[in-house]
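Rather than argue in generalities, we reproduce a single protein record, letters for residues, whole numbers for local backbone shapes, just as it appears below:
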Amino acid sequence: MTTITRLLAMLLLLCGSLYTQAQTTTKTDKKEAPMKTYLIERDIPGAGNFTPGDLKAISQKSCTVLKEMGPRIQWVQSYVTGNKVFCVYKADNETLLREHAKKGGFPVTTITEINNTISPATAEQ
């Protein structure tokens, strides 16, 4: 994997929350189905060693691709570890996620649909 590809994948992570907040959807007469939530695992050797500049460049690339693809795919957040990046996305389907990865040059190891979430707050409900 090239350094550029690794950089792009890492910056993809940083832009997500900012882009998601800024992204808007257009109102239509039809009610759109809610998007599904996905966890994407990306094997990226050395990801944890990327510089802030590397992460910014990757994030900018991802945001550019997302903007071109429209409002039915959104990047929520990503987590960078030593050799992996875990990304949370909302999208209509897995195909959109793979299209984003291909257009951005980002690796995809696995994509898993998230059915529900729990946290310490769940115990109090």
